[in-house]
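Researcher: Please predict.
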Amino acid sequence: MNIKINDKKYWSDFYSNNTSLAKTPSPFAEYLLSNSIIKKGDCLIELGCGNGRDSMFFAKNNISVTAIDQCKNTTSILNKLENIESYSHDFTNLPVFEKKLDVVYSRFTLHAINEKGEANTLKWAFENLVKGGLLCVEVRTLKDPIFGKGIDKGNNIWFYNNHHRRFVNSQKLKDNLVEMGFKIEFFKEKNGFAKYKDNDPVLLRVIVRK
């Protein structure tokens, strides 16, 4: 059963009221750039850019960014910035990209879509990356401390704090990536990746190469 997830209004309202977050990139984005995993001159697409903080960080570091999000209030602002092309779209149903990508970047977005959406997204990423290109993912998993809180919608989807999360089975995701043809370069599930005040959730961080 493929549970439908539609939290567009929640996220539109959230990012309208939390624009200050855009000033600071995520630890994942900083990690990728500081370790030269993503490099200057790369062509990158962010799937579900939210308030744009990582897209802006990459763009300021001379990376050519396409920022996709379902919320027009974010993409309309980003589209005015240098090194960023941004538009509103469902990233689980993107057309073939006009040029091959060096990096497909997804932070905290795979757990916001259902399994069919995930399968579509991974397939699209593989088909639109250059040979040797990278898919970089950070996502909540079944080991997340908030898994099981709220309303159980089935298929590891829980409605909690007014929106849905689908907690990813890390081994299943790994198997799917390998079967698709990706080569695993980094695959770790632990806390410490995204500490925020007293919150330190278990997350899965993935870097795979086509």
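Model: The first strand starts at residue 43 and ends at 47.
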